[in-house]
DNA sequence: CCAAAATATGGAGACAGTTTCCGTTTGTCA
DNA sequence: TGACAAACGGAAACTGTCTCCATATTTTGG
């Protein structure tokens, strides 16, 4: 999935420039900038922009994808260095923190990707698997119940992402995580 | 908020036709139908459509608003007829059920309203207050903890709404509700 | 019941953002 | 270094959105 296409040097350069600029603008909260202006801002022609990212959503997806990959890596890392239940808690809390430091990005991505796409579902799945890994490990260690799946936890996270524009959200986000962790604890 | 404008007979008729058609189409999953085609479908001119609902989002909001009003009424009713903790549980479970029977609508509304608006926030607040009412009653009755606010529960619900397009969602949605209810229980 | 006033209608056309297309430029490989 | 392939840029065509106003409908008051 990562290979299969040896991109020409300038093409890669442009693609990266677009992606970088996109992340920057998205993080700043610009989600409906004119598409051709965006090309200008990134220093490439409109045609080039379109060749790399046929739609506004494709661009968002690419950024989103990078984000997911980083998240999954983090899950892996935590799982390898902490006890199962701590890894799970750390991941979930870290998720909220990350979101909080990239509010703009989160908000923009959730807006821009509202029209569900294949790539998006796929990304969600990848993240879901990472969460499932954390949950399974904790369940096997006897630290949490095993009758509620990773999908449920993903939904809760999704809720946090989706709501990330209200003022008091950090408190509420923490509340959700608390509810999820407490709800998961074997009683 | 409900009064203040005695609408002319034909105006009301057209408005209702638009709203009804919108609900029907949204429920069927059509969220990016051409706006002028939509007008034709509802049997009115484009100008009329625009006069009543200046944007696509305004239309979505109107439908969303009706939905919220119904939800709030339900909360009120449950609260009046059941013990606090049962009312809360019934409301949350009912929420999922309702969503499940109107998948298309839920999905469309969440897509269409991704660009947050004032009216939307307002609607969310109304629903949030209804949930807060249920929570407070249950907390006072000593059935649940009181250190997690309604906002957190709202976020979880939001997550359920937002994720409502995956195949296995009912199970996961139930999982979320279970986690929330168990997480809320005083330990 | 009718005329005047008020309100609403519809859709042609102006407009803005999107997307295609192709002549030119840049990179690659032998 | 030359020839070929890949990528570039942006003018122009296209597509959906939204405005505007002459026409039609409803309401009001005499």
From TrEMBL, chains A, B:
Protein's name in the database: TetR family transcriptional regulator
Record domain HTH tetR-type: where: 12-71
Pfam families named among the record's database cross-references: TetR_C_43, TetR_N
Species lineage: Bacteria, Bacillati, Actinomycetota, Actinomycetes, Micromonosporales
Keywords associated with the record: DNA-binding, Transcription, Transcription regulation
Transcription recorded as keyword: yes
Residues annotated to bind DNA: 34-53
Coiled-coil segments: none
Superkingdom of origin: Bacteria
Natural source organism: Paractinoplanes durhamensis
UniProt keyword Transcription regulation, yes or no: yes
């Amino acid at each position: 999935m990562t290979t299969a296409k040896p991109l020409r040097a300038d093409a890669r350069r442009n693609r990266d420039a677009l992606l970088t600029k996109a992340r920057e603008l998205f993080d700043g909260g610009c989600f409906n900038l004119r598409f051709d202006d965006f090309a200008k801002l990134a220093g490439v022609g409109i045609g080039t922009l379109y060749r790399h990212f046929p739609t506004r959503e494709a661009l968002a997806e690419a950024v989103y994808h990078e984000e997911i990959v980083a998240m999954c890596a983090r899950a892996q890392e935590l799982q390898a260095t902490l006890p199962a239940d701590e890894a799970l808690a750390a991941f979930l809390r870290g998720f909220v923190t990350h979101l909080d430091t990239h509010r703009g990005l989160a908000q923009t991505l959730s807006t821009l990707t509202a029209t569900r796409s294949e790539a998006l579902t796929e990304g969600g799945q990848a993240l879901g698997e990472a969460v499932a890994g954390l949950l399974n490990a904790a369940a096997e260690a006897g630290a949490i119940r095993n009758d509620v799946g990773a999908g449920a936890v993903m939904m809760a996270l999704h809720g946090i992402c989706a709501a990330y524009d209200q003022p008091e959200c950090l408190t509420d986000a923490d509340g959700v995580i608390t509810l999820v962790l407490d709800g998961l604890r074997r009683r």
